[in-house]
Amino acid sequence: MKAISFKAMTTLLGVLVPLFSQAFSLLGPLEPWMTETNNYGRPGDIGGPMDITNGYRWNTPVITYSFDQSFLNYFGSNGVAAVNSAIKILNDLPPASQIVLSNFPTDARGLNYTAQSLSLYDLKSTTLFLLLEQLGLTSPSRYCYTLDGWDPSLFVYGGGGFWVGVSGTNYQFNSNPQDPGGHVFDFIIHRNYDPETFTPSFSVNDVLLGASVYSEMSAPNDYYPTEFNFTIPFPVDPFATSYSAVADFVSAFTQGQGQFYTGLTKDDVGGLRYLLATNNYKVENLLPDVHGTGTNANDWVDGALRGGVDKITFVEAPMNSFLGTFFSPVTNRYTDTYRTNGMPKRQQLERVTSRPDIVFTMEDEMTPALSIMDRTGTTNWINNAALNGSPGGAGPGMVRPGIRIAFTKISHAYWSQGASDGPQSVTLGLAPWSSYDGSTNDPILYPINLPGIHQTEFQLRLRFGSKEQNFIWQPGGGSDAVFAMQVSTNLVDWTSAFAVPNDGSVCRYYVVDPASPNRFYRVIQQ
Predict the structure, then answer these.
(1) Predicted TM-score (pTM) of this structure
(2) Does position 6 have pLDDT exceeding 50, yes or no?
């Protein structure tokens, strides 16, 4: 049982800003001060927000990707088409040097009401967000106001709070007995940036944001940190929409059911334009599998001052799932531009890859539990701070290939605690992956309807305090079969907790601290 918590709340309200603006946030490995206590590195995060000078990017113009057999078995050709649709949005972007931000919308979301009623997530839209992460972007709304530290003395016990406002870059606040000097602002920073001026912004896609700052303290030995401080952004205009950027997807996760993206927003494109700009110079080494070719075959420069590559193209290549390599190596030749003594130099390079830069796959074990997707984090990205004269700094750096993007096989999830087994079990809201758009067509549901016998996997997880036991059933049956999880305390009287179709997905049932010492479980075909 969660202990009683003491909570403080502060509200930052953006006012009197004469011009609306945009913002993007850069993703990179967590810095030492980015603690879980202050809302960094939380479940589902793969990194933290970087300072504008410390962005991470690719310095090769071609990124290869492939699908392993588990993905193909689960999603089939429709799933491959959905991922390729997301990639086409990125491939269709003009070079960074030719991007005009006014050509892109401030909100590219649509809503499919059928998918929303079924709690479905769109595979293409989720993929688009996951690829933006691997290109170096994170949530601009979440990090519009964020914490770089905290003073526990600012807790307001028993609730309460105070209102503050911000005009331009100057904070104003009301007098408050708990914080008469407004010291809460000593810990507020901005990690989103206007794509035109590269200065901190209070808006995302032309929506002015304020934020509430919460501080919570729990009793020791609770399931949660004893101290947890965080900000929650909100639009100052109550009629404006929030979390509009595709890079905001995880921050607006609960809003994703039934939602889909028709493309990238102005802020998403602004962030990519900044990272890939040819005049965004950083000292970088080349990837290990890059070497000179042609006239530069034996005389080529590795570490050098380089601008962005201007344009990135994703290229699919078939993969041998057993070996994890391409059936045939992929060769890409390109012109590399670097600067020496203030002058631009060009050289011909070649990259020969035997493994995909990005692999799309399926898994039933996610981090955190019950996530709908998982992916390689930022801990292995290459930090070039020392090369750029900042030893020990947080960046800038490069994204390292060898990325795994995984989607969950869990289509059904249930939870019960104590004596609330059986009919009182509560669904956690996971649902099959799907593909949908703004048309009246029915959503395409996954897993694909393969002919023959499916094997839905049932996973029962029993937890007694901190001790956990796992049980797995894989009942065989026709594709029209329906299986029920049943519970009993005496092996005579059985109660059905839930029933699911044999659709080839994973069903997980979490039982926390069962109340009765004798409790039995079985899966039967109805």
Answers:
(1) 0.87
(2) no
Q: pLDDT for 308-335, tens place per residue?
A: 999 999 999 999 988 888 889 999 999 9
CA angle 80, 432, 416 (to 5 degrees): 150
The CA distance from 26 to 63, in Å, is 19
Per the CB < 8 A criterion, the answer to whether 471 and 521 are in contact is yes
- The full 3-state SS of 36-51, as one line of letters, equals HHHCCCCCCCCCEEEC
pLDDT in tens, 276-305: 999 999 999 999 999 999 988 889 999 999
In this structure, the dihedral spanned by the alpha carbons of residues 278, 280, 283 and 285, taken in order and rounded to 10 degrees, is -50
Residue 377 region by backbone torsions, left for phi larger than 0, else alpha for psi between -120 and 50, else beta: beta
Q: Phi and psi of 403, rounded to 5°?
A: -100, 135
The pLDDT, as a whole number, for residue 202 is: 85
Closest CA to 101 of 206, 229, 223, 241: 206
Would you place residue 421 in the very low, low, confident or very high pLDDT band (cuts 50, 70, 90)? low
Q: Find how far residue 523's CA is from the centre of its chain.
A: 34
Query: Within 320-478, where are the H helices?
Result: none
β strands within 307-379, DSSP E: 313-316, 319-320, 325-326, 330-340, 343-353, 358-363, 373-375
Sign of the Cα pseudo-torsion (15, 21, 24, 30, in order): negative
pLDDT: is 388 or 327 the higher one?
A: 388
DSSP bridge partners of 140: none
Q: Could you give the count of Cα atoms lying within 13 Å of 64 in the half-sphere of its Cβ?
A: 20
From CA 229, how far away is CA 8, in angstroms rounded?
9
Give the residues across from 25 on adjacent strands: 138
The residues, any chain, with a CB within 8 Å of residue 248's CB and separated by 6 or more, are: 139, 140, 141, 142, 204
Per-residue DSSP letter, 136: T
418 near 107, Cβ under 8 Å?
no
Q: Which has the closest alpha carbon to 245: 42, 25, 85, 28?
A: 25
Between CA 404 and CA 411 the distance in angstroms is 20
